[in-house]
């Protein structure tokens, strides 16, 4: 399979968009934030990313643990960047037969906040977040070993 942005949108809707038919509820605390985000990213990328990775469970755990450390809005931006970087490094390590390079730039979800503060719907914010995350993942590279032309993660 491959990364599919609509899968990510659906997964994010489960805990962000109260108006979505997929909505299951908001996270109640930082532990649930980590669980929900890591679950959404795992469904989107864990078994779907190409090249395939044998470390999806470890990557999910890294994301969950790191996202669970967010205890205030002031630390959210940096911690989200650290969390997604940890996920990318971990998932890349399991791309057997490839030398993986995680996305080179930090994940920047600040445009989503700007959109939300301007009065956009949760669905619009989720669509933008999914686009940013999907685009970011696809900047990761994997070069076949022992030598080969790198391909983008997809």
Q: What does this protein structure show overall?
A:
The chain is globular and about 50 Å long. The longest helix is centred in the middle third of the chain and has 21 residues. It has 154 residues and is mainly alpha-helical. The N and C termini lie close together (9 Å). Strand 2 and strand 3 form a beta hairpin. The protein has one domain. The model has no long low-confidence stretch (mean pLDDT 96). The protein contains 6 helices and 3 strands, in the order ααααβααββ.
Question: Brief overview, please?
Answer:
This protein has 6 helices and 3 strands. The protein has helices at 5-16, 30-46, 56-67, 73-93, 110-117, 122-137, and strands at residues 98-101, 141-144, 151-152.
Tell me, briefly, the overall form.
globular
> What is the number of E strands?
3
How many structurally independent domains?
A: 1
Tally of DSSP helical segments: 6
Fraction in beta strands = 5-15%
- SSE series: HHHHEHHEE
Order of adjacent strands in the largest pleated sheet: 1-2-3
Q: Give the structural class.
A: mainly alpha
Which key phrases capture this entry?
single chain; 154 residues; mainly alpha; 3-stranded antiparallel β-sheet; 3 strands; 56% helix; 6% strand
Describe how the helices and strands are arranged.
Elements lengths: L4 H12 L13 H17 L9 H12 L5 H21 L4 E4 L8 H8 L4 H16 L3 E4 L6 E2 L2
Antiparallel strand pairs: 1-2, 2-3
């Amino acid at each position: 399979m491959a990364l599919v942005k609509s899968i990510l949108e659906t997964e994010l809707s489960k805990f962000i968009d109260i108006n979505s038919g997929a909505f299951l509820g908001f996270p109640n605390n930082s532990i649930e934030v980590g669980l929900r985000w890591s679950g959404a990213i795992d469904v989107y990328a864990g078994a779907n990313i190409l090249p395939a990775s044998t470390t999806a469970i470890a990557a999910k755990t890294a994301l969950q643990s790191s996202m669970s450390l967010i205890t205030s809005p002031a630390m959210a931006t940096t911690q989200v960047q650290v969390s997604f970087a940890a996920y990318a490094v971990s998932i890349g390590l399991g791309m057997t037969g490839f030398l993986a390079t995680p996305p080179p730039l930090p994940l920047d979800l600040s445009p989503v906040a700007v959109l939300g503060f301007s009065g956009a719907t949760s669905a619009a914010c989720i669509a933008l977040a999914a686009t940013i995350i999907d685009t970011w993942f696809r900047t990761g590279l994997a070069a076949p070993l022992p030598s080969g032309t790198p391909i983008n993660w997809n």
